[in-house]
Amino acid sequence: MNGFPTNDFVALLPIAILTVGALAVLLSEVFLVSGRRGYQAAITVVFAVAAGAAAIARPYSGYVFNRQAVVDDFSAFVTVVVCAGLALSALVGAGWLRARNAERGEFYGLALFGTAGMALLGMATDLLVAFIAIEVMSLATYSLAAYLRRGKRPSEAAFKYLVLGAISSALFLYGSALLYGASGSTLFGELAKGRGSPLSLAGLSLVAAGIAFKIAAVPFHAWTPDVYEGAPTPVTAFMAAGVKAAAFALLARIFLSAEAGTAAQATAFSGVISGLAVLTMIFGNLLAVPQRSVKRMLAYSSVAHAGYLLVGVLSASVAGVREKALAGLLFYLAVYAATAIGAFTVVGALERRSRLDDEPADAWDLERFAGLARRRPGLAFAMAVFLLSLAGIPPTAGFIGKLYIFQAAIGAQLYGLAILGVLTSAMGIYYYLRVVVYMYMRPAAGEAEPLSSAATSVALAAAVAVVVVLGLVADPVIRLAQAAGAILL
Amino acid sequence: MPPIVASPTAAESYLWAIILFPLAGAIVNGLIGRRIGKGNVTLIALGAMVGALVVSTIAFTWALQGTVLHFRGDPWIRVAGPDGRALISIGWGLLVDRLSGTMIMVVTGVGTLIHIYSASYMSHEDDTGYARFFTYLNLFVAAMLTLVLGDTLVLTFVGWEGVGLCSYLLIGFWYTDPAKAFAGRKAFVTNRIGDFGFLVGLFALISIFGTASYGDLQAIARSLDPAAAIQVGTFAGRTYQWAITFALLGLFVGACGKSAQLPLYVWLPDAMAGPTPVSALIHAATMVTAGVYLVARNAFLFSLAPAAMATVTIVGALTALFAALIAFVQTDIKKVLAYSTVSQLGFMFIGVGVGAWWAGVLHLVTHAFFKACLFLGAGSVMHGMGDETDIRKMGGLLKKMPHTAATFGIATLAITGFVPLSGFWSKDAILGNALFSHNPAWHQVGEIAYVLGTLAALGTAFYMSRVFFLTFVGKPRTHAAEHAHESSPVMTIPLWILAILSIVATVLALPVHGQLGHLFERFVEPVFAAGTARLLAVEHLHAGEHPAWPYFAAWGVAALGTLVAWTMYAGPALEAPRKLALAFPRLYRFAYDKFRVDELYEFLVIEPLRYLAYILWRIVDVFAIDGLFVNGVARAVGAAGSMFRVAQNGDLQRYAAVMAVAAAVILWTVLGAGGR
Fold it and tell me: In whole angstroms, what is the distance from residue B279 CA to residue B277 CA?
């Protein structure tokens, strides 16, 4: 058909499905006659599943849009992870928002749009496409963070997120411009051309700084605790799962393209990444220790996990262990998505629910978890599973993820980073287990009944299943992740 | 005809069902047992056992026809071999040959009978306790079947640990009584010591051969030259014989723990704290024979290591006599039976130690029948006497409990070794073979074992007859004995089945017409062929007919022991036991206190360990770890965390500034380091 790029559009099928889903949810608001919006979460889940299925079925593979994007196992894996995150978050949001009488189509619409951006980010092989994808994703999450306008915290959180996000976008864009100057192209494949020149180095560093903001790496993490705490809890879960996965996919592609064919860890760029990893692992864990708000603690934990994931990205630059490192990275991202959503869901279920704009300082205090095992044994067990997985204790999937990443780091001879990772993980056990101690060993303090809804329970059960099953039989997913990682160069 | 009966391939794929039946029963009863009532619990537990028994029977039928069923499971653990050798893959495979086929028939058959018996015996428990009991019992059977069916040492070890756990849970079943809980703990800890040996042996074998599967090991062992030197691994430079002896001694330490041999037998008598059906199933018929099974299973390896075989023989012989001596003066009916079990296990080890593996396994089977019958009979007596266990307070129960008395009598004759009951054939096959074996590592060990074993057999006849006469013959000595009542048919029917089995099992030992050896010997011959061939080659065993006189001697010994017991406890010399005890008060006291072995261990091992533990706790744990490391580090980390928290004050401008500065620092570093 005289030059009509059919393949390009077929390749975008998952993104198209997500966008159509968003439009469907938003349009349905117009024709709404009753206040019942239970169907919206269902629509979202259906479209998320359809998009994931489309990514798996993959009617077309290969480069599209003049090599500016690619459909491969890697992008498919990322799309499936973010779509699964979307489906879980939608289920969680349904219960949480209904309890606050705040369920609106915009929530699901924005989440679907944001996921479309994430899926595109997983495919991007061009700085400009990547930038567009980042913005699609970010604008949706900025708005989602401000979704509950009635409280003071959400608005503040969203404002901070927007302003700081703008700075990071500026850094990314400036870096892209410098890279274009150095190599004469915005394609990742050409990045290696200008290697060594100061222009290229500065460009890569600025791009890395921009991405470091999205993955919440120290010292670009400052927004994380405030925004994670201030945003509505289902939104926090969605951000922790999806944004991180998509941004890491981008970082892995850029890093490996830029480092293609160089000796391991010899370049200044990998120096930057390892510096970020060291700082992130140390400070993410260190700052999580004194937190009494569990939601804030989980925000810092998200920072800490970015550190471990950075170690995975770094190890991937060594030819021999690339497959293992990328498999570990992807596996870790998938597991972290399920775990973080699950943990934030439990936090959300325990929030005080007196009035909507009433956000007391102790809404997520440890004390609210006291005696949970007696009040709601199922909820406490699920939370315990998530926390153990975050801490990396077998037989949970979190352990397998850490095992793969640190093994890859040792294979890549990054001994210092591996040792630091293990030591800081040990530090993490302290603040994760503290919550377990409160749940199981302290007498109940609060009388408030935790939120319970069918949709939330389904999401929690699914997350627990993922964490436990992948912890016991990780092999199939690891193999998928290995296949996905093998595509990258 | 269903395919499982028609084709061995189909039967192989059903092998896991043997284990899954009782496992499923345990899971269901464990989860919802206490809510569904005793009737349903019994139905589920018993149904699971019958299911396992049916599938086992089908599998055993194949083994009877000479087909070896081998389910080759998927790889379970894959690790790199030592020194970069090929990958060691350990699978979920199951194996039913004539040895493990015999074992699963004993486990599921005796297990089913004991489940039936327990339904009545445990009926006084409340719903929760009743469900808990059957959960543990089913779980035990599942673990025991895993131990027996596993086609690798690793899977056997899984079952080995599983039965240890269930044994612990069931000994301490009435855990509110501290003495019983303590007995459970003692059993567990003693078994752990043995398990350590098992693990050492297992790892050594993996290091030597790079595999843990029985099939592979046997294939390698068949053509192995024991004097050759090992090239790689932990044992590089040693001969194969040395390394295999090392590994097998490790395994044998495990067998000593599980099968209650010297010096690790001390837990078994205390294990009688558990409910009596448990004593019958776990501590007589099945679990305690796991060590014998382990040695028999690895016969092809033991045949390469005469020193290890000599060790097995002498430990078995010493244990047989030692335990029989203690049993002389015990007054608790279950304790006598416990020491008798230890002693009989010693006989089995003599059998597998001298290379008469078939005889050891045959004694295992017959012992499972008559000892289970004795224990269940003891339980029936306790049931009728209001939980009394002291045989001095019984007497005259023959009339009150005719079924129990008759079955107990048959089983007593069987264990004593009266012709033609099963115990005679199996025990005397062991002793006869011991006498005519010539272990190249220690020529006289067979003869020593024969002498010790014959003395132990004399003792066995004496103490078992003593128990029978004191319990069932004479006049009732207490009020409870006068008013004892027979147990319900649910309990006496399993007793009769077991008693009949202890007679019928004689068939197994019948000489085969036209061939040398016995029926059972020919039956399991394929399993032990490799080991036997090697023993014949080094003249450890001799082909051909043995003289018959040891058999007659054994018969005479059994009759003598019984006669003496009759004289002293039911016949003319009723006063003799008391006079003897008075004449040798110290000796009597020493034997009554079980030769004070428990006290010796307490003094030699437990107290020093407790003292060391106390010191370690005070100095290392409380001071160094808790004080310096844990709390110190926690305080330091907490302080650091609070310090950096100041930077996180929620001020947007400051956050933005931090980002800008960070970007600048990165640029400066990169350009400083990378710029030319």
Answer: 5
